[in-house]
């Protein structure tokens, strides 16, 4: 059988190999003489040891030695464009991991993806890597360092998950050093000190944001107020910081926002007012998705006991003016859920579809009753199609 893959240009073969874990990349060297040296020029390093908790200290030491051996055996003139490390740093010497990252930074690193199992580590060099375009960090506890020296002029993607900073101001300083950032995610990001001496400012190039934090949520509203796509978890923060009598904060207008996803994990009985208040600040919204999470199958009392919601006496002309599609997920037919669906159908003048995705524990008979009740609601848009799944 003809070996078509080997007939490809070496640059293309190296690109294909860059999608494989490094261990598998090295294994291809036994295929033929042509393949033997190619792994040394692959621009991606991908080391994954997610099973480190079952290894002995000697096993971990051998893995560290093998990573060093691979890095030192590579073509030193070839850049490291992509570095991905998935390790539980508690079972390894953090100094070694820091050295691997520093070597990659020195070789014009563009894409860095680290998952290190929530362990303190010194990786300050990544925040002064002027070649970085994508930075994804998961399970890191950053030791205090001088954030004022951060410089990421070409960074377009920043994803933070289970990342701990010494203070809230560190995140503000990090974001201010990313002038061309387009995609920002912050999930379960925590701070030892929520005091900030830095101002959170709008990022002019940002078009997509996904945020899920507790206390600094309201501060990030200024950062993400010009995005086109926005996903927010733990929505109760809006009422806490922007509600009546909550404080001096003013919820910004989201003039460019066309797609929003809201995720609830709270049982607060004012969730309906929170959603409606936010929608008033999204004049160009086209797609609305609402997910209502619950834990271990428990009923969410807050959603059941929302009570008789005070329908807004005045709905601004631009509210839901351009909304075309709405999705209510994990729908159980509670009073609050029904009131929200009715509100959207009555005010969505351009609404094309209202899709109800019922909870997995809702039977077919209950679905029929839900659909009958929802069908009785007035629809502002004659072309709106109501469906339940």
Explain how this protein is built.
Helix content is 26%, strand content 23%. Strands 1, 2, 3, 4, 5, 6, 7, 8, 9, 10, 11, 12, 13 and 14 form a 14-stranded parallel sheet that branches. Mean pLDDT is 78; it is low at 295-306. The chain is of the alpha/beta class and 389 residues long. It has 11 helices and 14 strands. The chain has a domain at 228-389.
The gist of it:
The protein is an alpha/beta fold. The chain is built from 11 helices and 14 strands.
Low-confidence stretches: 295-306
Main sheet overview: 14 strands, parallel
Query: What overall form do the CA principal axes indicate?
Result: elongated
Number of helices: 11
The span between the termini is 49 Å
